Amino acid sequence: MTTLDTNTDTLNSIPKLKQAGFTGPDASLDVSLFDYGLAYKVTNDEILFIYGTQYGFNEYIRFDRCTIKRNINIQEEYDWADLPAVHSTMGYSNNDWNALPLEQQITDLLNYYGYENIFGSSYWEGFEIKPS
Predict the structure, then answer these.
(1) DSSP character string of 22-91
(2) Domain membership of residue 49 as a residue range
(3) I need a labelling partner for 120 at 20 to 30 A (CA). Which of 68, 98, 106, 127 fits?
Protein backbone atom coordinates (compact mmCIF):
# COMPACT_ATOMS: atom_id res chain seq x y z
CA MET A 1 0.00 0.00 0.00
CA THR A 2 1.32 3.42 -0.96
CA THR A 3 0.57 6.30 1.39
CA LEU A 4 0.72 9.73 -0.17
CA ASP A 5 2.48 12.60 1.60
CA THR A 6 -0.24 15.16 2.33
CA ASN A 7 1.96 17.56 4.32
CA THR A 8 1.42 21.02 2.86
CA ASP A 9 5.17 21.76 3.03
CA THR A 10 5.66 19.16 0.29
CA LEU A 11 2.77 20.58 -1.78
CA ASN A 12 3.38 24.34 -1.62
CA SER A 13 5.09 25.01 -4.96
CA ILE A 14 4.70 24.02 -8.58
CA PRO A 15 8.28 22.64 -8.79
CA LYS A 16 7.65 20.39 -5.75
CA LEU A 17 4.36 19.18 -7.22
CA LYS A 18 5.93 18.48 -10.61
CA GLN A 19 8.76 16.56 -8.97
CA ALA A 20 6.22 14.53 -6.96
CA GLY A 21 4.36 13.58 -10.16
CA PHE A 22 1.20 15.69 -9.93
CA THR A 23 -0.84 16.32 -13.07
CA GLY A 24 -4.14 18.03 -13.74
CA PRO A 25 -6.83 18.77 -16.28
CA ASP A 26 -4.45 20.96 -18.32
CA ALA A 27 -1.01 20.08 -19.68
CA SER A 28 0.35 22.98 -17.60
CA LEU A 29 0.28 22.34 -13.85
CA ASP A 30 0.17 26.10 -13.26
CA VAL A 31 -2.99 26.40 -15.38
CA SER A 32 -4.50 23.29 -13.79
CA LEU A 33 -4.11 24.72 -10.28
CA PHE A 34 -4.48 28.47 -10.66
CA ASP A 35 -7.14 28.52 -13.42
CA TYR A 36 -9.04 25.26 -12.89
CA GLY A 37 -8.27 24.82 -9.19
CA LEU A 38 -7.28 21.17 -9.44
CA ALA A 39 -4.31 18.81 -9.57
CA TYR A 40 -3.90 15.18 -8.57
CA LYS A 41 -1.41 12.39 -8.09
CA VAL A 42 -2.49 8.83 -8.80
CA THR A 43 -0.89 5.83 -7.10
CA ASN A 44 -1.86 2.17 -7.10
CA ASP A 45 -4.15 2.60 -4.08
CA GLU A 46 -5.33 6.20 -3.94
CA ILE A 47 -5.50 9.60 -5.55
CA LEU A 48 -4.41 12.76 -3.77
CA PHE A 49 -6.39 15.74 -5.04
CA ILE A 50 -5.32 19.33 -4.47
CA TYR A 51 -8.22 21.69 -5.07
CA GLY A 52 -8.84 25.41 -4.95
CA THR A 53 -10.87 26.74 -2.04
CA GLN A 54 -10.48 30.51 -2.49
CA TYR A 55 -10.50 32.47 -5.70
CA GLY A 56 -8.68 35.79 -5.82
CA PHE A 57 -8.91 38.51 -8.45
CA ASN A 58 -8.28 36.17 -11.39
CA GLU A 59 -6.99 32.85 -10.05
CA TYR A 60 -7.20 30.38 -7.18
CA ILE A 61 -5.08 31.55 -4.26
CA ARG A 62 -5.73 28.99 -1.47
CA PHE A 63 -5.88 25.21 -1.66
CA ASP A 64 -6.73 22.14 0.35
CA ARG A 65 -6.26 18.44 -0.31
CA CYS A 66 -8.23 15.21 -0.13
CA THR A 67 -7.27 11.58 -0.65
CA ILE A 68 -9.71 9.15 -2.28
CA LYS A 69 -9.16 5.41 -2.50
CA ARG A 70 -9.04 4.17 -6.09
CA ASN A 71 -11.25 1.18 -5.36
CA ILE A 72 -14.38 3.19 -4.47
CA ASN A 73 -17.61 2.51 -6.31
CA ILE A 74 -18.43 5.95 -7.65
CA GLN A 75 -22.14 5.18 -8.03
CA GLU A 76 -22.36 4.13 -4.36
CA GLU A 77 -20.06 6.82 -2.97
CA TYR A 78 -21.93 9.60 -4.80
CA ASP A 79 -25.39 8.00 -4.81
CA TRP A 80 -26.92 11.40 -4.05
CA ALA A 81 -25.53 12.89 -7.29
CA ASP A 82 -27.54 13.15 -10.49
CA LEU A 83 -24.95 11.22 -12.50
CA PRO A 84 -26.95 11.26 -15.78
CA ALA A 85 -26.97 15.08 -15.56
CA VAL A 86 -23.20 15.09 -14.95
CA HIS A 87 -22.65 12.76 -17.94
CA SER A 88 -24.82 14.92 -20.18
CA THR A 89 -23.22 18.19 -19.07
CA MET A 90 -19.74 16.81 -19.69
CA GLY A 91 -20.76 15.38 -23.08
CA TYR A 92 -20.52 11.68 -22.25
CA SER A 93 -22.87 8.75 -22.48
CA ASN A 94 -23.34 6.74 -19.30
CA ASN A 95 -21.09 3.93 -20.61
CA ASP A 96 -18.36 6.30 -21.80
CA TRP A 97 -18.32 8.20 -18.49
CA ASN A 98 -18.19 4.98 -16.48
CA ALA A 99 -15.13 3.92 -18.53
CA LEU A 100 -13.20 7.09 -17.60
CA PRO A 101 -10.43 6.97 -14.98
CA LEU A 102 -11.58 7.83 -11.47
CA GLU A 103 -9.63 11.10 -11.42
CA GLN A 104 -11.60 12.30 -14.47
CA GLN A 105 -14.91 11.23 -12.96
CA ILE A 106 -14.08 13.12 -9.75
CA THR A 107 -13.03 16.14 -11.82
CA ASP A 108 -16.39 16.10 -13.60
CA LEU A 109 -18.28 15.80 -10.30
CA LEU A 110 -16.19 18.62 -8.86
CA ASN A 111 -16.95 20.87 -11.83
CA TYR A 112 -20.66 20.10 -11.56
CA TYR A 113 -21.17 20.17 -7.77
CA GLY A 114 -18.26 22.17 -6.30
CA TYR A 115 -15.58 21.11 -3.87
CA GLU A 116 -17.68 21.11 -0.69
CA ASN A 117 -20.07 18.54 -2.09
CA ILE A 118 -17.30 16.30 -3.45
CA PHE A 119 -14.44 16.68 -0.95
CA GLY A 120 -16.24 18.13 2.06
CA SER A 121 -15.89 21.46 3.81
CA SER A 122 -12.47 22.96 4.37
CA TYR A 123 -12.32 24.18 7.96
CA TRP A 124 -9.09 26.13 7.72
CA GLU A 125 -7.66 28.88 5.54
CA GLY A 126 -5.93 26.40 3.25
CA PHE A 127 -2.41 26.72 1.92
CA GLU A 128 -0.73 28.71 -0.81
CA ILE A 129 1.11 27.26 -3.79
CA LYS A 130 3.99 29.22 -5.26
CA PRO A 131 4.02 29.35 -9.08
CA SER A 132 6.85 28.02 -11.27
Answers:
(1) -B-SSSSHHHHHHTT-EEEEE-SSEEEEEEEEEE-SSSEEEEEEEEEETT--HHHHTTTS-HHHHHHHHT
(2) 8-119
(3) 98
